[in-house]
Specification:
Layout: H1 36-67, H2 70-81, H3 84-97, H4 100-107, H5 109-123, H6 129-152, H7 163-192, H8 194-213, H9 229-241, H10 243-259, H11 265-272, H12 276-300, H13 307-327, H14 331-359, H15 362-393, H16 396-417, H17 420-423, H18 427-435
Helix pairs in contact: 1-2, 1-7, 1-8, 2-6, 2-15, 3-6, 3-15, 4-6, 5-6, 5-8, 6-15, 7-8, 7-12, 7-14, 9-15, 10-13, 10-14, 10-15, 10-16, 11-12, 12-14, 13-14, 13-16, 15-16
Length: about 475
């Protein structure tokens, strides 16, 4: 059955340009939480994300507290990134072969073990940079398998007709976790110390585990290919042949590599703005608080059809916000600028996740997501390395401002080189997801279908892709 998720009543209206999903009002995206499996999935995703960002904020603070070195903050980013190269694509192939929920559960061994070790070492006064780096490396191995499996699990916990809205709700849960993690981390450090902050990380991981255990994902009807080099290449080729997929991932890569300033936050909090751990916690949370505000707005608005154009606009505001943040010497202005960055970044995240989930066939979904993970991981970690090392060589201000400017240059180059990105419209892919026949269970409990292997940039029926 082909049930279109859009109508023609909003033809040509701005970025959204569409009506509501069937059976849902403009404010009906939260109705997806009435689905039991998706509710527990969202809770688990919120808690896991909050735990991850809390741990990252605490480790960054501890590394700077021990070393007082911007170079070491950059090295920390490099250590986080190192496992992504050899294991990222393998994690996607594993997610397409084995039970995705079980993979996520097993991968939590790494953060639980590492955080417990850091808690004991810090409480006993035996913490050191080599120990921290080894344990961060171990946690990153877990992320290489957790990320593609957790993301690819989403269609299996949603009814097909609510999938588009479910992506936004899941992204909102992510944003809430990103807000909660750094804020809790900074406040707990200020009130009770670093070791207690690691205890808070373990508590959030426990919530994530229990919630995920309550999820009953639907079985996949697609053929599960064995884990192999050829299988991994298949996922890479699929992304390479889709200009929109390649474009959104490439744009995110360069924008975040140049625009990432997270590694500079301890320097801004301690030396430039002089606001200490409380201010560091607020700065860390400002980006994600802005993202959460935008996520809530996106919940109220109908899903955005013109995803490519929205992505380009969001990256432009992202770069502008980074420049303002870099120059600012006012704590309120810095918070406001970093919130703007977060709001722009949230649009980018939702658009990219929407494109990936709609375009990727389920049998390739884990591998396509792992390619996206390679782009995201490379961007975040190399951005941290660039910012930390450039700040050490010059200044934190130069690292931030030059990065924001380079972000805008990269936006112009990618948009010109891959013009189909700006033209992408989600309409035909949404309809195609619902048109795929479902097997093995009633429609209300059937996993979301998959799009064909194709370039998705062609114009959808009855709409101009512009």
């Amino acid at each position: 059955m082909n049930i279109p998720l859009v109508t023609s009543r909003a033809e040509g209206r701005g970025l959204s340009g569409q009506g509501d999903e069937p059976g849902q009002s403009r404010r009906g995206s939260l109705a997806t939480l009435k689905q039991r499996n998706f509710l527990f999935y969202a809770i688990s995703r919120f808690a896991a994300t909050g735990a991850m960002t809390l741990q990252q904020a605490v480790v960054a603070w501890q590394v700077y507290e021990i070393s007082g070195s911007a170079f070491q903050l950059g090295l920390l980013g490099l250590v986080r990134f190192a496992p992504t190269l050899p294991l990222g694509l393998l994690g996607g192939a594993v997610a397409d072969r084995f039970d995705r929920r079980r993979i996520v559960l097993i991968s939590q061994v790494a953060p639980i073990t590492s955080s417990a070790a850091l808690l004991l070492a810090t409480a006993g006064g035996s913490e050191s940079l080599p120990l921290i780096y080894v344990l961060v490396f171990l946690m990153s191995i877990g992320v290489a398998f957790d990320y593609p499996a957790r993301q690819a699990l989403l269609p299996a916990v949603l009814r097909p007709e609510t999938f588009h809205s479910g992506i936004t709700v899941a992204a909102t849960a992510n944003s809430l976790g990103f807000v909660t993690g750094p804020a809790v981390g900074g406040l707990v450090i200020a009130l009770a110390g670093v070791s207690t902050a690691y205890g808070a990380h373990l508590a959030l991981l426990a919530v994530a585990l229990v919630s995920l255990l309550l999820v009953r994902a639907q079985e996949r009807d697609t053929v599960r290919r064995s884990v192999s080099l050829e299988g991994i290449k298949e996922g890479v080729r699929f992304v390479w042949r889709n200009q929109v997929l390649l474009g959104c991932m490439t744009l995110d890569l360069f924008a975040v590599v140049f625009g990432a300033v997270t590694a500079l936050l301890p320097i801004y909090a301690e030396e430039i703005l002089d606001v200490g751990p409380w201010g560091y916690g607020l700065l860390s949370a400002a980006l994600e608080f802005g993202a959460l505000l935008m996520a809530l707005l996106l919940l109220w608005l109908p899903p955005i059809q013109r995803a490519g154009r929205a992505l380009i606009y969001s990256i432009a505001f992202f770069g502008i916000g980074i420049i303002v943040f870099g120059f600012s010497r006012s704590f309120p202005l810095s918070l406001a600028a970093y919130m703007l960055v977060g709001m722009a970044d949230q649009i980018s995240v939702v658009m990219r996740q929407t494109i990936v989930q709609l375009v990727a066939p389920d049998e390739l979904r884990g591998r396509v997501i792992s390619v996206n993970q390679m782009f995201v991981g490379t961007a975040n970690q190399m951005g941290a390395v660039r910012a930390g090392w450039l700040a050490a060589a010059t200044s934190a201000t130069f690292a931030a401002v030059s990065g924001g400017m380079a972000c805008l240059v990269a936006l112009g180059l990618v948009s010109a080189k891959l013009p189909k990105l700006g033209a992408y419209n989600t309409t035909s892919d949404v309809e195609r997801q619902l048109a795929v026949p479902q097997q093995g269970s009633p429609p209300a409990e059937t996993p979301v279908g998959a799009a064909k292997d194709r370039d998705p940039a062609g114009p959808p029926p009855s709409r101009r892709c512009a």
